[in-house]
Amino acid sequence: MKGNKQIDITIVGTGFTGVFATHKFTSLGYSVQTLEAGDGIGGTWYWNRYPGARTDSESYVYQYFFSEELLEEWNWEEKFPAQEETERYLNFVAEKFDLKKFMRFKSKVIEAKFLEESNCWKVATEDGYEIQSQFLLMGSGLLSKAQLPDIEGIEKFTGKILHTSQWPKEDLSLDKKNVGIIGTGATGIQVIQSIAPKVKHLTVFQRTPNYTIPMNNPKFSQQKMEELKRQYPEIKQTRQNTFAGFFYDFESSFHELNQQERLACMEKYWKEGSLSFWIGQFPEIFFEEEANREISQFVRNKIRSRVNDPITAEKLIPKDYGFGTRRVPLETNYYEVYNQPHVSLVDVKTNTINKIKGNKVILNDQEISLDILILATGFDAGTGALTAIDLYGKDGRLLRDDWKQNGVSTFLGMQVHGYPNMFLVNAPMSPGAAFCNVPTCVDQQVTWIENCIKHVLSKGKNAIEPSKISEKKWGEHHDEVAESTLVHKTDSWYTGTNVKGKARRVIPYCGGVGEYKNKCDEVTANDFIDCQIY
Ligand code: NA7
């Protein structure tokens, strides 16, 4: 179907953002069309079906809180649910609220153009579908544009090669295969620990080792679920005011404890087996070199104690950046994998991958034949999904060019000057671009957007965009906060250094979810004075 049907809102994506936004705006009576590239609901949880994919967020907080009935009806199986359970949950929500009728699948958005004469967005998909809407809400995902390594000959690899986010729905047999994997981020770690028992030989190509925390992932009994459900009102309330949108927040002060007390505290959090060791313990992890050094050392010793071969152990221990200054993955028996004879670890910083020829990875001093090469090489985070689309604002400006020439610029991570009536969720310069439990920020941001749209329409106006000065001020505040942390010193997708040519800049807002919410609420309370409304 091709047409110039005029609706209120086009929503891009059916991940946590798209599903929630579709429900919110349709139940408020807006006409909505949601467009999704995949042929199913789930976003991240649709695409990332690689072995071992699961959340590092507790299920009881990594969910929606907008419906008492939904909270009552859905029971989680595990504390940290696997991809399949999370995908099933999002489908359950969509079916319960009859949302699929607003969604068009296999509809990859390739262009969105703001039409100044009508203050509308014209959105086009790869299969030739077009729609016009007054507002455009981009729920296209923080980690959805795959980042592929630039290795000579990779496109001619004669074995099977795939990026983790393009894992097929049908089972890919790894049994008795020689498998190689590039990348040891959160994804690589989940893949490695899951496939190691199945394959004939596993070669891990590691560029930078990661600090990790062992995951404690109990199954939930019915009794436990009932107990959790009684806590839901408290969880719902608490999560929006914490640093990272979880049910926990920084609890201790590093300096108020002596060294022995700090050690006991770290042991306690370590046993928790969750990200609370990182974002629920000492805030100083993020701000103070000395505190960070002691915590990093604690984690290094934990890693060392689990690896039999001292040379391999040293390769797996991060030495040149501090704990928590890049994403900390949770793991299960990850280090024990390297104690097995059929697993080899190659440090590609010292033994560089020079090229790929046939089914061989050619290193400085070795050639490795593989049946399957897995690319757990991450994403062009935050900006990737937005700049992949031809997004034209006022005066024919293109977001991709604007951000390339002038650097990324947003107001609250939700709006961009020159792109009226466009809203971003979990985008650069908001906590949702890394430092937030995604559903918490989705709830907060989509609700803010709802109020913004309501405000425009209640004034009888047609369009809203942030003023240039408000956007500039937000950028300055964002950078000031980011530069007060240790995060900006470390190379990672948080700072954009994983993508060649991407300007180095901290992508997520580092001031905390609670603080961010206060700032957004101020804008609403001041009747969006920071924006131009016309
Ligand atoms: P990440 O965290 O960006 O990890 C990607 C990994 O791939 C990382 O170890 C990279 O090493 C490595 N990489 C990337 N390109 C290369 C090349 N060319 N050669 C060798 N190694 C390479 O992505 P993930 O998918 O693991 O996780 C993304 C987020 O998803 C995660 O943080 C969670 O929030 C969920 P590097 O560290 O750059 O040296």
Task: Describe the overall structure.
- With 534 residues, this protein is α/β, with parallel strands linked by helices.
- Helix content is 33%, strand content 16%.
- The protein has a domain at 2-145 and 380-527: FAD/NAD(P)-binding domain.
- Helix 1 packs parallel to helix 15 and helix 15 (438-458) runs parallel beside helix 17 (513-525).
- The two termini are 32 Å apart.
- Ligand NA7 binds at residues 143, 149, 182-188, 205, 207-208, 327, 348, 376-379, 493, 498.
State the CATH architecture of the domain at 2-145 and 380-527: 3-Layer(bba) Sandwich
CATH topology of the domain at 2-145 and 380-527: FAD/NAD(P)-binding domain
Question: What gross morphology would you assign?
Answer: globular
Helix content: 25-40%
Largest sheet: 8 strands, mixed
What fraction of residues sit in β-strands? 15-25%
Radius of gyration: 23 Å
Oligomeric state as shown: single chain
**Low-pLDDT runs:** none
**What structural class should be given to the helix and strand makeup?**
alpha/beta
Mean pLDDT: 97
Compounds present?
A: ligand NA7
Distance between the termini: 32 Å
